UniProtKB/TrEMBL annotation:
Thioredoxin-like fold domain ranges (all copies): 48-132
Signal peptide: 1-20
Protein name: Thioredoxin-like fold domain-containing protein
Domain of life: Bacteria
Keywords (A to Z) from UniProt: Signal
Entries under InterPro entries matching the protein: SoxW, Thioredoxin-like_fold, Thioredoxin-like_sf
Coiled coil location: none
Pfam families in the record: Thioredoxin_2
Lineage, top ranks: Bacteria, Pseudomonadati, Pseudomonadota, Alphaproteobacteria, Rhodobacterales
Biological source species: Neptunicoccus cionae
Amino acid sequence: MLRLFLALVVSLNLFTSASAAELGDDGLHKTAWMRDTFKDLSEDLAEANSEGKRLIVMVEQRGCIYCKKMHEEVFPRPEIASYIENNFFVVQVNMFGDVEMTDFDGTALPEKEMVKKWGVLFTPMILFFPETVDPALTASQATVATMPGAFGPDMTLNLLRWVVEKGYDGEETFQKYHARMLAE
């Protein structure tokens, strides 16, 4: 019986470590569904639309325990990973990075300055965008939803679904949607 238990623990650890994101040279978690782009949000939005996907900007930082939690415990779940891969175009932004990026309003700044401009204070911060964005708006003004911090699997999946279903255009708030999904 002990042998069976130990085999189960080892196989679970192998599954978890195999499906968890790897750390990149910048210290951020990297997944197969993240896109390596020039970080021009208007171009990224156009590419997301051409693929029939929704644009997400995911702000993270090196050493973030909540980013680690999301990448090790939430995002690797098959139903969440496949939902993200099938429905979203994900661009990762380093909260303290120096890579230049261009906002919807045309402003070009290093990642760390752009994040400041948007008022992002905590990581992870996931910004969800509509299919069209007024070029006068900044990313923080254009979002249809934000996910500040680490959420559990059910809430994360329900928020992803709510965005894809355009729940933000309807009468049902995300909180009511989430409660209804948990009850079903």
